[in-house]
Amino acid sequence: MGKGYIKCLKTPHPLTKQTAERSKYGYLVVENMQLGQDEIDEDTGEIVTLAIAVLPTHYKDEGSGGVRQVENAQSWVYHDEEKAR
């Protein structure tokens, strides 16, 4: 994982509710990542796809190599840009 473009989700998967048990980082997450879930509209019988946002919980710290918690999952921070300032 590098430079803040890929982060990770260490909580259960939003749709399957399974955890990535054998992974140090969990599920990989990229900015604006969404999962689709089909549901049937009871009024029309039409299949409607819902978009579920996948938000990161952790990222790999470039300096220490450790896994750190994301402070605000709603705001995607590019860690390499913070160093340039």
Overview of the molecule:
The chain is mainly beta and 85 residues long. It has one domain. 7% of the residues lie in helices and 33% in strands. The strands form three sheets. It has a two-stranded antiparallel sheet. The chain has a two-stranded antiparallel sheet with strand order 3-4. Strands 5-6 form a two-stranded antiparallel sheet. A hairpin with a 6-residue loop joins strand 3 and strand 4. The longest helix is centred in the C-terminal third of the chain and has 6 residues. It is elongated, with a radius of gyration of 16 Å. The mean pLDDT is 82.
Primary descriptors:
85 residues; mainly beta; two-stranded antiparallel ribbon
How are the elements arranged and paired?
Blueprint: E1 6-9, E2 27-30, E3 34-40, E4 47-53, E5 58-60, E6 67-69, H1 79-84
Antiparallel strand pairs: 1-2, 3-4, 5-6
Question: Short description, anyone?
Answer:
The protein is mainly β and 85 residues long. The chain contains one helix and six strands; from the N terminus they run E-E-E-E-E-E-H. The protein has one domain (6-84).
Overall geometry:
elongated
- Cα separation of the termini: 22 Å
Count all strands and give the number: 6
Helix content range: under 10%
Whole-number total of structural domains: 1
The averaged pLDDT comes out at 82
Which H/E pattern describes the elements? EEEEEEH
| Sequence of strands across the biggest β-sheet | 1-2
Radius of gyration over C-alpha positions, nearest whole angstrom: 16 Å
- Spans of at least 5 consecutive residues with low confidence: none
Q: Tally the helices: what do you get? A: 1
Structural class: mainly beta
Beta content comes to 25-35%
Taking the sheet with the most strands, its summary is: 2 strands, antiparallel
